[in-house]
Design goal:
330 residues, alpha/beta, Rossmann fold, 37% helix, binds nicotinamide-adenine-dinucleotide
Length: 330
């Protein structure tokens, strides 16, 4: 028996990269999958049907159930049509995975309106368009799973103000959806994925790897910690009935590990018995709220966890180990 037997899923942007691995793994777990992909370049240009068709073929030849959709998540009517197609083809929609994405990296001072709008349109509006359409059906069905790709870039990647803002927006959208739909048996969670796809090939680090090794990171990744397919097992679990209690959470998928992000929490507060005078605040701030301020982690998030002392890790067996923040816990 598969963990997702009988479930119907929509995976946006699943013709390539991380979405492709998710679509194939959901199908392997028994889900019927609508493979959506507009088939665009990394910056969102050109359109082709081949990426979605190829993934559908792979699923069908492995004995699974799948159909293709070539619409754009950025268009509300096409997003609605995707969800309708899942219901028309498979009878219902149990799972929505928001993966479709593009990049138009630029520093904030150089960014054009087009670069800003295009990235917000696909990532943030696209996630909203598909989530709204699925939420209508899932609320009626009294159940469902929505999992959306955010990114560590939301935590402060300097050259990605458009992408970082969209990915931070997806966290807010996920938390709002989780609190709004929990009562209907629908969960919404976010994943900050990673994996050497063409997105990573396009970065300065990706280009440096090509110059040194003669191969792109995406070509070297298969079967390693950088394999984009490493994200999929977490998605299958979150999409399953067994994860009914997991709602409004964000996980970083990195290497062969999954990291739970802390909920935003208050860490310091200073209070007066009257409205503050700015001069007074300037005097008190450095030794109170302003003490030991850390910059946002950006893409360095979570990467130093493997260097935590051995005694902080617990062996769970079968090559699995577990760490959680020492002291009072989470
Ligand atoms: N690769 C990483 O390390 C990484 C890190 C953090 C977040 N992410 C996020 O994970 C997701 C997948 O990234 P990837 O690296 O696999 O990228 P990718 O470029 O390999 O795949 C993205 C797919 O989305 C499709 N797409 C683009 N615009 C679309 C639209 N409007 N409608 C439908 N499909 C569209 C593209 O055609 C492409 O096949 C993205 O949301 C990305 O932001 C990736």
């Amino acid at each position: 028996m598969g963990m997702l037997d009988g479930k119907a899923a929509l995976v946006t942007g699943s013709g390539r990269g991380i979405g492709r691995g998710i679509a194939l793994t959901l199908a392997e777990a028994g889900a019927k999958v609508l493979v959506n992909d507009l088939g665009v370049s990394l910056s969102g240009e050109g359109e082709e049907k081949t990426p979605a068709d190829q993934v559908v073929d792979e699923i069908l030849s492995a004995g699974g159930a799948a159909a293709a959709n070539y619409g754009s998540v950025a268009d509300p009517a096409q997003a609605n049509a995707m969800v309708e197609q899942v219901v028309d083809t498979f009878g219902r929609i149990d799972i929505l995975i928001n993966v479709a994405g593009i990049l138009r990296d630029r520093m904030i001072f150089n960014m054009t309106d087009d670069e800003w709008n295009a990235v917000i349109a696909v990532h943030l509006n696209g996630t909203f368009n598909c989530t709204r359409a699925a939420a209508i059906k899932m609320r009626e069905q009294q159940g469902g799973r929505i999992i959306s790709m955010s990114s560590v870039s939301a935590l402060g990647a300097p050259g990605q103000p458009n992408y970082g803002a969209a990915k931070a927006g997806i966290l807010g959208l996920t938390w709002s959806t989780a609190n709004g739909l929990g009562r209907y048996g629908v969960t919404a969670n976010a994943v900050l994925p990673s994996g050497a796809t063409r997105m990573i090939d396009s970065t300065p680090r990706g280009k440096a790897v090509f110059e040194e090794a003669g191969k792109w990171p995406s070509e070297l990744a298969r079967g390693t910690e950088q394999d984009p397919d490493n994200v999929a097992p977490l998605i299958v679990y979150l999409a399953s009935d067994q994860a009914a209690h997991v709602n409004g959470q964000a996980f970083h998928s990195y290497g062969y590990g999954y990291t739970l992000l802390a909920q935003p929490q208050a860490v310091a507060r200073v209070v007066a018995d009257r409205r503050w005078d700015p001069e007074e605040l300037a005097r008190v701030f450095p030794e109170t709220l302003g003490k030991d301020l850390a910059p946002p982690p950006g893409t360095a998030f979570g990467k130093d966890l493997d260097e935590r002392p051995a005694e902080e890790w617990r062996e769970v067996g079968q090559g699995i180990r577990f760490w959680q923040v020492p002291g009072e816990g989470r």
